[in-house]
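Bug: token stream looks shifted between consecutive jobs. Job 1:
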Amino acid sequence: MARTVGSSGPKTMEAIRSAGLDLIYEFGYEGMSLRQLAAKVGIQQGSLYNHIRSKQDLLLDLIRDHMEALLESLDTTLVSVESPLDRLRSFVDFHVTYHVKRKREVFVVNSELRSLEPQNYRIATELRGLYERQLIAILQSGVAEGAFEITDVPVAAFGIIGMLSGICAWYDPKGRLDRASLSAIYVEMVLKSVGARKTLSMENAASGRGALSRPERRARRAG
């Protein structure tokens, strides 16, 4: 994406990105105009082209940056986690936390992929595929080790991601469940969905714990 030279360039670009995200979230990609964007940033409409080539360019930039940040954060989360069971727990907790904290970005990415032109759509879906393959690899490792019982790993991965991403449509952080309790509930549901009951029972028996971890028991009581 083109940017102006000078100290104000990056600052103005960040203002454009932030305003663009707000407007797309509120009005949708088709409903948001560059005139609105310029007015929200406080610059002339013609000045936008010193920073972005088009509205389509801005949308791709927002989606690509979101996906790259998501992938980088996931890599950092999983780098020191070894067992498939713990990696799946960490993946679920990460996904829930990230999506709760960055609800606007997630909404724009999920709802406006269809607005990307074919070449840009391929770029975005390739990045999304990298994220999906992270979960697929975790599930495949769990099946190979006998920790999970899954008939079709890709289908299970897509189903899990769909379930987790749906949180953005209904979760209210001001409601009865805090983020940690919500995450614990989803961790329990996902582990059960991949047939991890036997592994959990053996793990808990070895450690002298009950069937659920402390956060999971607390989440169940809250529910």
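Job 2, same session, no restart:
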Amino acid sequence: MAIARQAIDAAEFAIRSRAHTLSAEMPDHAVPVMADPVRLEQIVANLLGNAIKYTPPGGRITVAVSPAADAVTLRVSDMRASCSARSSSSTATRSRTRPRVPRPYGSRWSGRRRSH
């Protein structure tokens, strides 16, 4: 996927400046994707940028593209340099807590009709 390769090339300076190791797992052939190329590039750049930003210096980042019969999977993952087994299990537990969902507010959401 050429878009993933472009995002990696664009992020090369940030990757080197934080001493990250990058592994790219991509097929040798072009993978056609029916998507808006600008948005897709933005998504890949965001995922890669977050991995670069939140991985401590010296960490490892992997970008993997896996084509299937009717879909393509893009995975950006990082292996934090100082992450122990205990801290990763507590992080996983915290992330499973109930997500915060904004509550509807105002008369529009309250189910009551306003008369003027």
